[in-house]
Amino acid sequence: MVKILHTSDVQLDAPFHFLGVKGQQHRQQLRETFRRIVDMVAEAEFDLLVITGDLFNDNRPHQDTVDFVVSQIGRLDIPVCILPGNHDCYDDTSVYRKARFPDNAIIFTDQPTIREFAELDVAVYGNAILSSQSQRSPLRDLSPIGETRWHVAMAHGNVDRPDIDDPSRPIRLEEIRDSGMDYVALGDWHSFADYSQGEVAACYSGAPEPTAVDERGAGYVACIEIDENGVRVRPEQVGTISTGEMSLDVSGKSVTQIMEEIQARTDPNLMLKVTLSGLTDLGLVLDTEKLEQELFPHFYYIGCSDQSHPQLASISPDDFPEELVVGKFGRLMQARIEDAADDIERRRAEQALQVGVALLKGRRVL
Amino acid sequence: MLLQRIALERFRQLDRREYTFQPGLNLIKGPNEAGKSTLQEAILFALLGNPRLKTLHRDKRRDDCISWGEDRPFSITLDFADESGTPYRLEKDWNAQKVCLTNLQTGDREEDIDSVEQIISEILGHGSLELLQSTVCVEQDAVDEISAGRREIGDQLQSIVTGGGADEATVSAVLKDLDAKIAEIERGWRTHAPRNPGPIKVKQDEMGDIETRLSEIRPQVERVEQAKEQLIALETRIGEIKEALGPIRSLKELCDRRFELVEQQGNWKAKEAELEAKIEQVEEATKQTEQANEALRAYPGFDAVDSEAERQLANLHQRVEVLREEVERRSAELKQLRAKQSIETRTRPGLPIAPLVGAGTGFVLLLIGVVIGVANSSVAGILVGLLGLLIGIGCLIWLVVVLSQPRPLDLGSQIAAREADLAKSQDHLQRVTTHLAEGLAPFECATWDEFSQRLSECRTLFNQRRDAQTRRGAFLGDQTLEALIEERKTASRHRRDAEEALEDPEMQRAIGITPLQYEELKQDIEHLEEELAEKGQKRREYRIRREIADYTIEDVRRLEEQKAAAGRSLAHLEERLAVYQLTRDVIEQAKEQTMRSARDELEPRIGAYFRRITQGRYTQVEADEDLNLRVFSQEKGDWITPDSGELSRGTVDQLYLAARLALLDLLYRDTKPPLLLDDPFVKFDADRREQAMALCKEIAQEHQVLLFTCSDAYDLFADNMIDLPGLSAQD
User: Fold this and answer.
1) CATH number among 1.25.40.10, 2.10.10.20, 3.60.21.10, 3.30.450.180, domain A2-237
2) Does A343 contact chain B (CB < 8 Å)?
3) Is A361 part of the contact surface with chain B (CB cutoff 8 Å)?
4) Most buried in the list A207, B226, B483, B604, measured by CB within 10 Å?
């Protein structure tokens, strides 16, 4: 039996603009997770480690990061197959040209596309991505020509899926099915996904740590076992950071209640994307930046998106008599909201309505 | 609306209490902490509170209103009648979070909270709890502040017209706050404020600083990255050069080797020839030496002839010769003497006449000359004298010579002497000749000439032998012939080795290289080595640049992330600013429209109420756009403002109450909600209190009035009295 650990899209040294000052911490986290993967490979006695693209976020990683990767790979006494992806493509400035990797690291460059490991009875195939703009199928020209018993292909690209409109590095499902491989190790997508076709097992391992707040299914590696009984794929969680999405209807709720509901999901390792929706009471001023700042200590990252709207229907003569400034203001703002030329103007008018009503009702919201 | 009854369960200190109200002035009387304010709140919550919310009103929490010792929230039941007299029962249970409005006339029940709120709003005129509180409730504090001059009536009115329900919220204050906030945000951005910049300016400066740092760092990092990329190109090129240099260096080395071998071959060949010649000459010299030695065997003893021996023999030979010449000479002399003796014997010699004659002649002539000369003193005499002198002298000399000749009388002795000498010389000659012959005998030479001849021949042979030996020695030097031969063999072997090496197939590659090609090869190598050195130097420079970089890509990423965060914050601030500006503009617009309308409507209403209250003393009231009031004093003949001190405190209170009633009319055009007065006159003096109560009685004809007080001073005015007992020990 051959045991392979498959990972991809570690994206070491990626910038994280959305994380702001926490970006550096997350870069460090990616390193730690990669170290954990190497630990896992060593402890669980895997026979082969395959990294199917985007190990680095680009071809200009920090020298320390390169040294770190080199040292980690050097810890292993098994072959490590590395396929350059679209982020760390094998162009003239490739990081794989700049660094001297350990002898057990097999970098799939433009040549060769096959590497046989006789002691494992496995041949590994792969077309390195030579340009970040590559439009070619990463499975092109790959067939099980090796003389080994098992054949594993590495491919960094986009499996043909109707809901995804990305023509770059396309992988058709038929290509997987007809590849003749035992296992196709896919990379490029950050979520674990099984795309086995026919007799051919194929999986995206996903990124071991999320690199964006909306990456569901990140945080895994794929553990592959190949023997006479077939190929078994098992996702194994390695990531520390999880992602989550919370849709919160703020209708009739106060800021305190909203805060409490979000805080209920407190997790220092959670990247949480909160979408506030519903119809808010007039005068409820939702300052998402302030919310994020106050909730920041409770999460690894929190991003709030305010999709709520003020309850315009409540601008009724009963609650907002026209004889009062607040009533007149409500109506003027209502007209502006309804006549807004675009979403930005509408959003601004809605927020002005909320701020104005709050102020006129004597609330200190400035 | 006419409130009729309220029943309370677990509402603070009013647990299981029920109170009944009547039209007109209801006096709810009790000491402090008896529950007056609680009852007032209960009425408001009963009307417009939402049992589903945990917050009742503003910051008042539901749970804070639960009776002590109770876990469950409260419930309130309120009976009332609308303007048409239709009775209703409104039940609200904050525990069950339920509402029920029952039309007691028809029995219709409505439990949907929104619908119930709608009905209540219609009956009340407005559905806002805050509005209700700010309009129908006249609190002690508000009146107190007006009468104490701490707050303007206009502010109070504006606060109500603003609509927030908060006493402190006036539209003017809101606009002021907004202006201040906008100015604070904009400070230093659109205005110059170097010391205390606003948040936008701060963020812009922060972004500027980040951008500045990035503009400093990025080029450095870019150079490092370019250095890394250049290193790749350099490594590649260096690899190519080394790869290219390999074969051509090898070919050049082959050529150099070939040249060396050819040179070696030539050198060894020459050496071999030189040694061969030397050997031949050595052998020739050896042969000549041997020949000389062979020839010298014919000259026995000559090898012992040294220069001393030769000198002795030569001396002997020379003495022989001298002696022989001496013998010959003496023989000849003897012979001559004998001949002469024989002649003299025949002819004796006489005096020498001729010289004597000549000498006499000379003297004569001399005398003649002297005579002549003395006599005549002529030249001829002198000349003749001289001539005679010369002749005389010459003949004298001649005579001396003749006279000096031997005399024939000595010849015999001379011959005898000569014969003795001759014999002596002959004897000496004989001895020396014998001695010479003895000296020559070992050399088998009979004569000196023979000896000399043979010695010369021998010496020639010696010289030849010596020359041959010298040549041999010169050729051999310190070596032996055998060593020379060995050396020649070695040279021959080296020559053959070089020839064999040149014959090597690998060497054949170099044979085709022409000198021109070889020069080109050298130039190529030189160029490539120069390029290699240059690239090597650059590689070192790039490596150093890479190693000693002050900043890394991580610094750039960190700054870009900070910049992104600052950018988001700035965008947020700018949007907040736009929101505040829009809020301000629209509030300003709303204020203009509302205040103008309010003023137009309030002015006559306040005037009417005030005229009625003051029993016609003041007939005109004016309000400005901020609802600041002034009244016309007929006594003064001019307008007076409430804060001028020209109106009595009682009159100011009355003006305020008139304005509040006018506001009620303005806001509740078709409805008459009950008026809740929270002991507003407690600090009034008796006179002012009486006037105020007279006003209340007036108001109570249209609005049901609930006057909450702890004083007994109003008892006479009450249409209905509700006593709230003080807290018992049990409570």
Assistant:
1) 3.60.21.10
2) no
3) yes
4) A207
